[in-house]
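In this section we walk through a basic example: taking a raw amino acid sequence and producing a predicted 3D structure, encoded as discrete structure tokens. The instruction is simple. Fold the sequence below.
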Amino acid sequence: MENYTKNGRKKVNLERSLNKPKVWKSSLKYISGPFTQGDNQENISRAIMVGEFYYLQGYPIHIPHLNCRWEADYPKPYDDMMHIDLQIIQRMRHTDELIALPGCSPGRDREIECAMSHMVDVKIMTVVDCEEIEEALGEDFPYLPRGQANLMS
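The resulting token sequence is shown next.
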């Protein structure tokens, strides 16, 4: 049973190696999730952890949460940042995928809507998905923003 998660799904083989050339997969993974709702640093860490999971599987990833450093140095209106993110999604191919993290987020909802209207696959992560990423990476995965009691609040 060691090749399966506690939820019965087959485990993903993740290898962390900086010395080995990466074999890249062709589809991009765009990590979408809460940013302004809840604790920003927890939200960024959560998105990075999911991005790392897909990176270790060979996917190129985009984590819009990482624009926070740019925005901190050169503040911009929220709508400008959303416009940039939605433009990236509009340029994605049908073989790419938007990964939507759990949690209440108007921005994430706009990104999902944009992806669906442009025929980009969307994976809405569940708590079980989050637990499996936590298990695969051997780290804690705070899949709900601090103070949020469930996925819909």
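Looking at the output, two observations stand out. The beta strands are 29-32, 61-62, 97-100, 121-124. Residues 20 and 56 are 12 Å apart (CA to CA). In the next section we compare this with other chains.
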